[in-house]
Design brief:
12 strands, about 180 residues, five-stranded antiparallel β-sheet, 4 helices, single chain, alpha+beta
Amino acid sequence: PIGFFKLSNFLNAFNLFGSEREVKLDGNVIEISDDSTSVKYLTTSLEVLEPYKFNKEQFDKNDTFPSVLEMKLTSDDISKLKNAHSVFSELDTAIITCGEDTIISLGQIGNFKTSSNSFKLIKDEEGTKNFSVGIPLDILSKIPQINYDLEIKYNEKRNAYRFIFKTPTFTLVVSGKNIE
């Protein structure tokens, strides 16, 4: 097991590299490198993280839920979402809607919707269920801007969604927010 005190800082280190990078673990140091750039990131002692400990089974449960959408989320898609957010800063959530089309849009969530501005990306992939689920842009902006195999899982019992961002190197799991 590897401990990260600020996982978002470590993940942002991947933004310094393209897809052709190498990741090595040597003791408590993770080195990310390509032909011209190298980053060494010091991990932390697991004892320091003990108060934040989560059970591994909590993450394994995601495998038991059906996927309602599997799609490619490219670094270009993420860049467009981040750039659109810089134009429309009041839009605070990336919303994935599956119906006739799969659309990623920016929206405003909460009681005080003050904007009619909009941005959307149409994706080719089809879901197995009609749904609309959001991820806050402050979370999306913290993940490395690389290509992902994105899987959205649905827990029917809890009416809850999980975003599973997969790469050959790591997997991120983020809770989604149902959009009514």
